[in-house]
Amino acid sequence: MKKIAVIKGDGIGPEIVLGAIKVLDVVSKKYDFPLQYTDVLMGGIAIDNTGVPLPQETIDICKNSDAVLLGSVGGPKWDKLPGNSRPEAGLLGIRKGLEVFANLRPAILFPQLKEASALKPEILKDNINIMVIRELTGGIYFGERSRVNLVGGGQKAWDTMAYSTYEIERIAHVGFETAMKRNKKLTLVDKANVLESSRLWREIVTKMATNYPDVTFEVQLVDSCAMQLIRNPSSFDTILTENMFGDILSDEASMLTGSLGMLPSASLGNSKLGIYEPIHGSAPDIAGKDIANPIATIMSASMMLRYSFDMEKAALDVEAAVSKVLDKKYRTIDIMQPGMKSVGTIEMSNLIANEIK
Ligand code: IPM
Ligand code: MG
Q: What is the rounded average pLDDT of the residues 7-14?
C-alpha cells in the first residue's frame, strides 16, 4: 500500500488533480497496486480554512506519505497578503520541509503537437527532449530578504541569492547522473559573468565534471541560454541550474512543447518521497470551467510512478495513453488546432484513463 498526500490547492488545482487521480486509480487496478489518498490543505484554501498557507498537519501527513500529488496554489484573492503569508509561501515551505532539492522538469514535444509549438517545424527539427534540473530549496527563493524605509523618503528592498558548496554538489550530482541516463550532455546555466554565487556553481560543477568523462559538459550564461532555447532547442539535453533561473527557463521550455499545460515535474530529495506537480500555476481565470489541460498533472503522476514507486512499466503506460489520446486528435483548448476534437478537463482525463485499462 502506497500513501499519497493530495494537495489540490487553488484555481484549477482541484480539477487537474482529480484527472491525475483517475489515471492513478486505473493503474492501481491494472497492477493490483493499492493506493491510499489523504487530502491535505495548502495555499489559499489553507489560509481560508486555517489562517496559514501551510498547516503543520499538512507537513506531518506529507512527511508520512510515500509521495505528494500537488495541483497548484495562489490567486488574486490572496495577492494582497504579505510575502510570508501568501499561498506561494506554503508551496516553498513544503518543498523546503520535505527537502526536495532536485526539481526535474522534462520538456518533451509530443510529435502530435508540433503544430501547437510556438516554434517553426524547421527549428524544432525531429524532436525536443530537454530535462531541466532546477535547484529547488536554495538561492534567491530562500535567501535573506527585507524592506526598509529610507530616511529621505522611499524604500529599499532586497533579496539575496546564496548557495553553499553542499547545496551545489548535491544537485550537480543529480545533474550528472541524469545526463548519464540520457544523451550524456549537461549544460550548466548561470550568470557567472556577474554573480558570485554563479561563479561558485561554475567552479564546483566544472570540477565534478572530471568525474564524468562520458558526459559532455558545457556552461552557458542564462541570457544566452534563453535565446538558444528558441534558436536551437534540439541542441539541449540536460540543463542544470539554480532555483530562479530554472523557474524562468522551464516556463520558456514549455512553450516549445506546445503549452504550459503539458509540462510535469518531480521534486526529489535523498529519499523516495517526492512532490509531483505540473509546472504551471493555478490559472484562476479558467478555474471551474472544465477547460484546463490535465496532461501536465497526469504526466506528473507518471513521474510519481517512476521515481517514488519504481513502476517504470506503469509510468510508460500513462505516457503511451497520453500519446494515444493525442493521436486520436483530442485536444484541450490550450493545444487546440484546426481539425482536432475539443474536449474539457474531465473528458481528457477519462480518455487517458480509458487507454490504460
Ligand atoms: C513553479 C511556480 C512557483 C515557483 C510559484 C507558484 C511560487 O512558478 O513551480 O515554477 O516559482 O517555484
Ligand atoms: Mg514557475
A: 98
3.90.180.10, 4.10.910.10, 2.60.40.150, 3.40.718.10: which CATH number matches 1-103+258-357?
3.40.718.10
- With the most atoms of ligand 1 within 8 angstroms of its CB, the residue from 73, 133, 137, 247 to mutate is 247
* Per-residue pLDDT tens over the stretch 188-218: 999 999 999 999 999 999 999 999 999 999 9
42, 79, 88, best to mutate for ligand 1 pocket (most atoms within 8 Å of CB): 88
What is the per-residue pLDDT across 164-185, written as a single tens digit (0 to 9) for each?
999 999 999 999 999 999 999 9
Cβ-count burial 96-112 (b if 16+ within 10 Å, e if not): bbbbbbbbbbbbbbbeb
Nearest protein Cα to ligand 1, atom 7: 88
> Is this structure's pTM higher than 0.85?
yes
Count other Cβ atoms within 10 Å, centred on residue 36: 12
Residue with CA nearest ligand 1 atom 4: 247
Which of the following CATH numbers is that of domain 118-256: 3.30.70.260, 3.40.50.150, 3.40.718.10, 2.40.30.20? 3.40.718.10
Helix 56-63 and helix 87-97, axial crossing angle in degrees, nearest 10: 40
